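To whoever is covering the structure queue this week,

Two jobs came back overnight. Logging them here so there's a record in the thread.

Job A:
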Amino acid sequence: MRLKDKVVIVTGAGSGIGRATARRMAVEGARVLCADARKDGAQATAEEIAKAGGEAVAVLADVTDEGSCGRMVETALGRFGRVTTLVNSAGVSAARRDPTPEPDEWERVLRANLSGTYLASRAALPHLVASGAGSVTNIASIFGLVGGSLSPAYAASKGGVVNLTRTMALTWAPRVRVNCVCPGVIETPMTAPFLADPSWYQPLKERHPLGRFGKPEDVAAAILYLASDEAGFVTGVALPVDGGYTAA
């Protein structure tokens, strides 16, 4: 098992990439804390893991709140004794395609995607250091690497995650490895409204040279590698998992 003896916190574990990641981590031997802003979603993921023979606990966590992030980490410590791994998957999409989002929309997206990544990491990092083999994997986006027409707020938040990842990697080396994945369009509840629109679906699909959209499991596989000891010499990386989108 590639994550034997690891204790993993996955934020946004209630659906999509976060759920697929939590499940994959558990299959590979990790004990998993499933955190989400919707307790029922986190609980469903934890129950799936338990039914498959893994070990998981669900917690309600708002990554935009410093106190909530602290309680999330304390729950993991209380249940499992330590924390070795953090996956920052919690985030939001833009409410609509808007070249000039209202200030409150701008703040909502950056607070969830960028500040949430920072606050969860800040709460976990001392314990990742103490574990002796800590790692953080953040979820950015292809739109953190290239421009896109969806939302300036979303692109800015994910670009921030990419450079936050690089800076954290330098700041915390050699004690903690920090990387991020940059998914292309992945079929999740978050992207469903856009993919249901015919004017979006085919043009977006054609931008992916592999000829399909990604699955949450595609991203979970990359996260698993970055969190495992196989990536022991990998830090500061922004890894596209995008079917070739950014190669064009």
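Job B:
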Amino acid sequence: MIEPILEMRDVVKSYGENSILKGVSFQVRRGETKIIIGGSGSGKSTLLKLAMGLERPDEGQILIESEDITKMRERDLARVRMKIGMVFQESALFDSMSVRDNVAYQLHEKGTNDQELESRVRQNLGFVGLEDAIEKFPAELSGGMKRRVAIARALAGEPNIMFYDEPTAGLDPITSRKINQLIIMLRDLKMSPACL
């Protein structure tokens, strides 16, 4: 049996008196997609923050590739986060950086040499159909283009897991369909589990 790449076990999370998650449990295996649906404030983004180790649960366990991150030290969490690609709801691109520099950001942090960096940036932008936008800045891009750049940036670190926080929110139906097709294609090509 294939081990889950992400597992939540009886996760509880509250903010003050406001109980957000009450005993949430699920597993995601390689090649699967888990879609979490709920209204605003129902805990979708909180689940992603917990899975990234950006917040800690009040109770329960969270395992990434069989490693319990629930009480993990920040230094060890940084290593686990390198296995995860994250596409935020509002794309979260750096406005002062070109598309190239946004996609290359994590590669710069890892000390990737210039030739490999350029190759991977172009490859990822090609995958999302935006290689021609490499010199543009986020202000010059449509909402859908920004989401595709955010996907290319998340892919740059060659993650084992991809998280998407409402990747089609605020986009028109045609652009939403393109983003969803990209996510499915990525899952099928890389066999990376996706949580939306």
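Note for Job B: The first strand starts at residue 6 and ends at 15.

Please reply-all if you pick these up so we don't duplicate work.
Q.
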